[in-house]
Amino acid sequence: MVLMGMEVEFLIMDSYSLKDKRSVVKSIIDRMHNRYNVSAAEVDENEVLNKGVIGIGIVTNNRRHAQKVLQQVLKEIEDLYPVEIIHTEWMEY
Question: Which CATH class for the 2-92 domain?
């Protein structure tokens, strides 16, 4: 069994209120969960208007599959959302 996750820290463009931020963060979390069947949650910087930190995790029986899914998630976040990823930390257990 492979447990793999990543913590993605990003800046949100054009976010001027917590409502703007929550809209983007919730959209990312919901889309990644529905599309890739990963667990995701906002894990830090909850009260900062233009910065988000999301933890994303997957449990599988294949290390390569876990890496591939998480890389796809990261690419989709970069491509589809008005965010600039500033730090990514990978974890594996």
Answer: alpha beta
